[in-house]
Amino acid sequence: MRTPRRLAGRPFLFIHDDHRRTARCDGGSRRSARDPATHHHDISAGGQRDRGVRLSMAGTHRPAQSAGHLIVRPDRSYRRTVNGRQRPASETEVRLRELATFLRERRARLDPEQLGLPARRRRRTPGLRREEVAQRAAVSVAWYTSLEQARPVNPSKAVISSLADALCLSDLDRAFLFKLAGHPAPEVTTSTALDARLMQSLVDQLAAPAYCTDALTNVIAWNAGASEVFGDYGQWAPDRRNLLLLLFEEPGFAQRLADRDDYAARVVRTFRGRSSAYLTDPVAVALVETLNRRNDRFRSLWARHDIRQAEIDTLDVIHPLGLLTFTMTSWQAVVTGGLRLNIYLPTDEATAQAIRRGV
To answer: Which of 67, 234, 266, 339 has its CA 20 to 30 A from that of 185?
Structure first.
């Protein structure tokens, strides 16, 4: 009699109901019905002598359904493994598969000759080999292969940065690779020259006061309404046109604000919370060091390590036309890191009328 392949790790019993009935469990024995002494041998854990019985290691009995052929059926406790349903992939598994695909695609785009690698006669796949990428990134081939096979490895930021260099990734691709590896994406550093022109065109179309700043709080665009509320930014040199410098070193700036000190504290907390530039950008580091050295008020606020990430705020302005109240809405650019547009909408009818009269 041909013995069927066992289901690994699953207790079961198979029955042949003619003259060759055979019962088997995990670790059990075989007996044939040809032996009269064992024809009605008790094969169950509970002492049952029924010929049409299927037994599992858990002691579950079910009648055999068919005659003349072999029946193999897992126990009830294994029903979840044979019903065709699969466990949905977790978020981590999806991210690892996406990371593996991204690495393979970017590896295939590289030209070995342009990278100064020796020419090889036969290359079955385009781009670099895995061992070539691993060598450029100073990691083992086995470890890099695990990444491309979506295995649960946890690369550090330094390793991901080395892989980005080895694959010659752009700033956007590098940031995306960090996200796929489960790390915060580094900020994309791009020139704001074109953005400044676009943002100036945008704020000029707005009747409400509006201005745009970068990650260092440099004011790169503003409209006439913003000049009425905060002062004319154009009267200061471009290298001084920075909210932190203006608020803590230029007493003539933002004199119409009802609570200028509170506004300055908001800017400090927002600057710390909106970007990590003060940790990595040499210009931002120098700016913070300069203000810490020159201004006691800034040094006190900075030492508190308070952060702020608000999209809506209120601002009171003491204007010759009366008290104006604005609701600030903030919009952050997606691609250019730190680029921010602040629009001050009128909160009440009096403020709205003042804007319509050209405040």
So the answer is: 266
CA neighbours closer than 13 Å in the CB half-sphere of residue 150: 14
Q: Check residues 356 and 125 and name the one with the higher pLDDT.
A: 356
Architecture of domain 193-356: 2-Layer Sandwich (3.30)
CA torsion sign for 289, 291, 292, 293 is positive
pLDDT per position as a tens digit, 44-78: 444 444 444 444 444 444 444 544 556 555 555 55
Average the pLDDT over 214-242 and give the result. Answer: 93
Residue ranges of the chain that CATH labels 3.30.450.180:
193-356
Report the alpha-carbon distance of residue 229 to residue 344 in Å, rounded. Answer: 10
Give dist(CA 350, CA 298) in Å, integer: 34
User: Please, which pLDDT band fits residue 195 given cuts at 50, 70 and 90?
Assistant: low
Consecutive H or E run containing 61? strand 61-63
Average pLDDT in the 93-107 region? 91
The CA distance from 77 to 80, in Å, is 7
DSSP-derived pairing of the beta strands 14-15 and 71-72: antiparallel
- From the candidate CATH numbers 3.10.20.30, 3.30.450.20, 1.10.260.40, 3.40.50.10190, the one assigned to the domain spanning 91-180: 1.10.260.40
